[in-house]
Amino acid sequence: MNNLSSYAELCSQMLDQTFAAPPQEGALLAQYQQMVKAYVHVENSVAVLSDLKADCSYIYAGNFGLFWGLPSNDFVIDSAFEELIFNKIHPDDLMERHVFELRYFQFQKELPIDERVKYSTISRLRAKDPQGKYVFITHRTIYQKSFSDGSIWLATCIYSPSADQQPHPGIAGKIINNETGDIVSSDIYRDYDKSLLSRRELELLTLVARGLISKTIADNLHISINTVHRHRQNIIRKMKVVNITEAVKTAFLMGIIS
Asked: Is CATH 3.30.450.20 what the domain over 3-190 is classified as, yes or no?
């Protein structure tokens, strides 16, 4: 997925839930707003409380808000996704972050509702400082509240300075059990990636990645060229990318082909 396609898939997964809201929804929202606001007041970070049902976000900025050029007062945006912050994150890191959050979302959906709040993510992203220079920042995600039907309602992203400014490849994304401190094995949530495409589609995409043309792929897999073309279109549709080249790039990033 390129940035736009991975972002579109993330939006679709999060916003297209059923959302069986409880009668006390307003009171619950106010409670979580106060919790997030108090956290920011103590840590001086930036927090985005996203209401996935209403497709809006409440943004709270401590002193670290100056890094992003945010106003000091709390404010609301008409989107569950903080594009005003995303725009300052390095495109490669943003793409990897979107893919990682898709995995986290699927991981959370497999958990019992009362277990979900025990887990959060942490990653390190490159973001432009006020002088336009990329520096490392810490990003965390916590899904704070789900409805009884299993839909995830409130998600909080926290942005803070990173003490580690040494270059490392990737965003070092981890899912952490907040009760035990254990890091969830990536093998667990990467299994969700493997279910995205069928075995035959993975075989075909692997051959595309090796540079084989459609006729050669058809001969290798003992299928017709028309079937190859159909599989290619299915891969593009499932991965929500613009072409097969983007599908290959995303598959490498997700680790479903090598």
From this structure: yes
